[in-house]
Amino acid sequence: MARYTVTVAAGERRASLLVVLSPSQLCSALRDRVKSRLPDLGLTAAKGAHITLHLNTEDGPMLDVEDLLSDVLPNAEETVYAVVHVSCQEMLTFGRY
């Protein structure tokens, strides 16, 4: 098992998560685990939101969800950014507007 540090970015909100997964899993498993933890972050309205994973920064290289974690994050030391793409209506729920 490996520990992945994930920064969740949803509009102006930021949160940091530690996610434990097997390196032999796909990046989609990391995305799904982040998505399942959004309610813990108070982002219940983001349940149906689209999430993209990026390396090192919010606008860094986007990870392909079909790649193995061991291939794109070989040492599990890099920070992964999970960018939550939400609609304007969901932003109202987050209190951004």
Write the SSE topology:
Blueprint: E1 2-10, E2 13-21, H1 27-37, E3 50-55, H2 69-72, E4 79-85, H3 88-94
Parallel strand pairs: 1-4
Antiparallel strand pairs: 1-2, 3-4
What's the quick description here?
The chain is α+β, with helices and mostly antiparallel strands.
Task: Provide the CATH top-level class.
Answer: Alpha Beta
What structural class should be given to the helix and strand makeup?
Answer: alpha+beta
Cα distance, first to last residue? 40 Å
Instruction: Tell me the series of helices and strands, N- to C-terminal.
Output: EEHEHEH
CATH topology: Ubiquitin-like (UB roll)
Tally of discrete structural domains: 1
Continuous helix count: 3
Write down the overall geometry: globular
Note poorly predicted spans: 89-97
Provide an overview of this structure.
With 97 residues, this protein is an alpha+beta fold. 23% of the residues lie in helices and 32% in strands. Strands 2-1-4-3 form a 4-stranded mixed β-sheet, with helices on one face. It is globular and about 30 Å long. The N and C termini lie far apart (40 Å).
